[in-house]
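Continuing the series of single-chain predictions for the mutant panel. This is the parent chain; the variants come on the following pages.
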Amino acid sequence: MQSYSRNNIILRVNDLKTYFFTRRGVVKAVDGVSFELRQGECLCLVGESGCGKSVTALSILRLFDSPPGRIVGGTVVYNSTDLASCPDQELRKVRGKEIALILQEAQSALNPVLTIGDQIIEQMKIHLPLSTDEARFKAINLLREMGIPSAEDVLNYYPHQLSGGMKQRVLVTMSLCCDPKILIADEPTTAVDVTIKAQVLDMFHQLKTKRQMSLIFITHDLAVVAEIGDRAVVMYGGRDVETAPVSEIISAPAHPYTAGLLECLPDLSREMSRLNSIPGMPPDPSKMPPGCTFHPRCPKMIDICRTQEPPLAEISKEHKVRCHLYA
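Parent structure:
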């Protein structure tokens, strides 16, 4: 586990709110999320499906559909620039070049009618002063670095000609081709088998070690967080409910939701008839419950949880939690 100084913060997200204005009402997909990303660390955003992890990632680069989506509050500061409110022209210089995003489901993220080479080279020619031959040479070297055999041949392949693991590696190659400072990976281990999952995680370990990249790794799996993360932000109902080093999240979870997620993991040290689960369902983002959004499912709920949103409590310098039990 590495230690990180507060002086080397590369990205600061503060009270970010992204709402979707639909005919059925206002969907508060992200409703006041705050975190910091430090140079060279892996920060994990973790939580159930629908808690706002992916929309948070898309909001950093304003890649959600607008309309109906809109950032209604908060800031996303990178290099003294607020990406949440800066002009589109300025934001386009950051997208792909300074901050890269790996989307979920490689099959859907790749264009099926363009070759792998066309998709990688196009991005480099937009952001870098390279000729087609220079971009092709760099693409081949990156594919080799990602462990793809016959890299020159793969450039001429279409996405359907590659396996799931190869597609995932191609997406990582595309994200690295402009040497970004920050890489955001949105559930890259989803919908892959155990072998490919291990390969993908090993690939991110190498990126972090060799390139000293800052990673935002989005997942619903705390076992993955324990393996790859330095710090974790636990999200629920569009909010950050607990932020701490991964070691503290795993050994001493403060929020009842975090503890519930850990109890859902299989424990090989004891016999279990069935896995534990958190009762109930995540809230509808268009009909959030009053007070603490987790209170309808919380085993430690007290009366104040039904009416008042919990403040952010500081357990230690690095460990913060939104829960009335610590207020």
